[in-house]
Amino acid sequence: MSTAVIIVAAGRGSRAGGELPKQWQTLAGRPVLGHTLAAFAGMDRVVVIHPDDRARAEAIADGALLVEGGASRDQSVRNALEALAGRGIGRVLIHDGARPLVSAALIGRVLAALEVSAAAAPALAVTDALWTGVQGRVSGTRDRNGLYRAQTPQGFHFEAILAAHRAHPGGAADDVEVARAAGLDVTIVEGEEDNLKLTFPADFWRAETILKGRGMDIRLGNGFDVHAFCPGDHVWLCGVRVPHSKALLGHSDADVGMHALTDALYGALAEGDIGRHFPPSDPQWKGAESHIFLRHAAELARARGFTISNCDVTLICERPKVGPHAAAMQAALAAILGIEASRVSVKATTSEQLGFTGREEGIAAIATATLVQL
Ligand SMILES: Nc1ccn([C@@H]2O[C@H](COP(=O)(O)OP(=O)(O)OP(=O)(O)O)[C@@H](O)[C@H]2O)c(=O)n1
Ligand SMILES: C[C@](O)(CO)[C@H](O)COP(=O)(O)O
């Protein structure tokens, strides 16, 4: 059963202040909403935006569907549910764009609870004493037993929450309130203190501190590719046209080095390989220039908040000789990746006339890439 995620980000963040609405302010080097999107990477995501923010949202969407929100949070959620209606969605998670530190473990707990419940949401039991107050003076106390602080993502069976929103008069604080008004039973799962909602300016400092404590995310990926020789007079290697007595056979331009590097980037992101993103069965990629694939992988890395720290490509062939072209290949790859040439290495080796590369039946390439997220 497919699961979609709705990330509501159409509010104006009036309490947070700043030049931009809080979801567009920078947190540890990228927009708050970029962190939130990355937390749900790999899932079908819908981001609810304010019409004024469309250009910013398109820049970081990373494949998410963009839907325009309404004047209130519940109207924004409703717009996204209506946009998903009729698409065969089984379950939906609804999350505040302003909660960028949600963890995979918390998302997992909500999804697991949805296996046995029509609705599930995270919360933390209230641990402080509770008072009422009037004009700065305590006017009474309240029993905190059984009181919870609600968080998101809140999860629901899709048709049930869609019907609940359609029937609700509006004005709900969250989707659990809407669900309960429709008679749905909601399971509470353990929330997390770090899953804070950025609401006031000081919350940004807290979130930065939490992110620093989590440390760097360093990813290493590897790629390997082989293309056979066929009749021709040149080969494409790492973006450079190299004259040769043969060509390389492939669905695209058969740039074996660039393919290995592209797969290394996809590997570091756990995003499969070129074939997943550009299926060879799709005629539009016949004869395609391989920089399209590499650029896509690099953009995907950037959209997920990673910078490409370095990469290293080794071409394995007896001929053509790579040395005279290595600097041009390094420059070509660096330009496509958008990084300095000093972070790109291109080298070659023979296989001492052993195996298929030694018999000059084709060229092999291996590559590694390191991605870093601060
Ligand atoms: N019309 C609205 C109002 C809120 N939200 C989203 O709902 C989440 C939780 O709301 P809140 O923290 O109250 O955000 P804002 O409404 O932006 O903040 P404020 O009340 O301070 O203006 C936020 O991710 C916000 O962008 C939304 O999508 N559409
Ligand atoms: C949905 C919510 O995050 C649950 O805690 C919260 O109610 C939304 O924020 P708001 O400040 O109440 O709009």
Structure write-up:
By secondary structure, the chain is an alpha/beta fold. It folds into 2 domains: 2-214, Spore Coat Polysaccharide Biosynthesis Protein SpsA, Chain A; 217-373, 60s Ribosomal Protein L30, Chain: A, CATH 3.30.1330.50. 31% of the residues lie in helices and 30% in strands. The chain contains 12 helices and 19 strands. Strands 1, 4, 5, 6, 7, 10, 11 and 12 form an 8-stranded mixed beta sheet that branches. Strands 16-13-19-17-18 form a 5-stranded mixed beta sheet. The radius of gyration is 26 Å and the shape is elongated. Bound molecules: cytidine-5'-triphosphate and the ligand C[C@](O)(CO)[C@H](O)COP(=O)(O)O. Keywords: Isoprene biosynthesis, Lyase, Metal-binding, Multifunctional enzyme, Nucleotidyltransferase, Transferase.
Bound molecules: cytidine-5'-triphosphate, the ligand C[C@](O)(CO)[C@H](O)COP(=O)(O)O
Percentage beta strand: 25-35%
Rounded average pLDDT: 96
Give the CATH level 1 class of the largest domain.
Answer: Alpha Beta
- The overall number of domains is 2
CATH superfamily of the largest domain: Spore Coat Polysaccharide Biosynthesis Protein SpsA, Chain A
- CATH 2nd-level architecture of the largest domain: Alpha-Beta Complex
Largest sheet: 8 strands, mixed
Find the CATH topology of the largest domain. Answer: Spore Coat Polysaccharide Biosynthesis Protein SpsA, Chain A
For the secondary structure, the number of strands is 19
- Uncertain segments are none
Structural class: alpha/beta
Q: Report the oligomer.
A: single chain
